[in-house]
Amino acid sequence: MSTEGTGRPGGGRPARGRPAVGIKQVAARAGVSPGTVSNVLNRPERVAEATRARVEQAIVELGFVRNGSASTLRAGHSSTIGLMVLDLANPFFTDLARGVEDVASERGYAVILASSAESDDREQRNLRVLAEQRVRGVLLTPVGDDGANADVLRDRGVPVVLLDHPTPRANQCSVAVDDVAGGELAAGRLLDDGARTLAYVAGPSVLRQCADRRRGALRALKAAGLGREAMREVTVPAMNARAGQEAALRLLSDGRPLPDAVFCANDLLALGVQRELLQAGVKVPTDVAIMGYDDIEFSAAAAVPLSSVRQPTYQLGRIATELLLEECDDEGAGHAHQQVMFQPELVVRESSRPAGGPKGGQG
Q: Tens digit of pLDDT for each residue in 257-284?
């Protein structure tokens, strides 16, 4: 029995007891050699149009279905790419994945989506699975700073493009946003609006995004003539709304006055902080201003519309996928690696506008 296909007229699995249809049966029905059928399936441009039409008709009549796994084994790769992100629950990564899938679909590829859940061990396991699946390439938002876990793929010649993360390697592509600049934009705006004390709420510093946004905030403090003591740092184990609520509870209960403003490393944290502060009777932004990061869809619809730093999320996904597929197509033959860096944009809403401040959307 050939592994090249299965017979299932009308779709679904083959009827019980009915042998699967393979290349030999298709070849016999079309009156050609099995090699000609293989060419029609894999290299149709090599087959005369009339012969190709005869083979395609036989395929339809017999209900032949190509076995993708067997084709992958022969070619050494598949028509799938992997996408590994930090957190599938974060709408930022949903928008990013949409850009990836749109380009992949246009180019005839499917996407295997996985999450590391911000865990280095889980990232390693999932990357090994992707390697075993013989994916053509992988887009990775790494937990660590250098994406070293992806060496299991690189050692097999599988291209890896870092996504939402600059690469430290000249021989690798990456697409990212300048998060140091974004952190400076966010904190700088809060300071320009009159804040003299800040809290920075973020996940573990091993996450490059958290570390870079912190660096940007410290730059803004220095530019304003303030020292590091003007910024309280609250580190939480996750980057979600519940962790943001926990951070706000810590600010409310540590015995010190609340900061003038809170800058959060993403919008989910900021939404959690805002919710907890409002429930405690704290007025936003009169008592405490709040700034998020990512400008996810929910930000503008918050109880107090959230100021944020916008990233071109969909474009990140699209461009990273284009670079990955270009590298896959080049098969390592002199591919010109690119490190693309976008600049973020500040979006100002009510959560950071000083009381009595000017109305308006962006600033």
A: 999 999 999 999 999 999 999 999 999 9
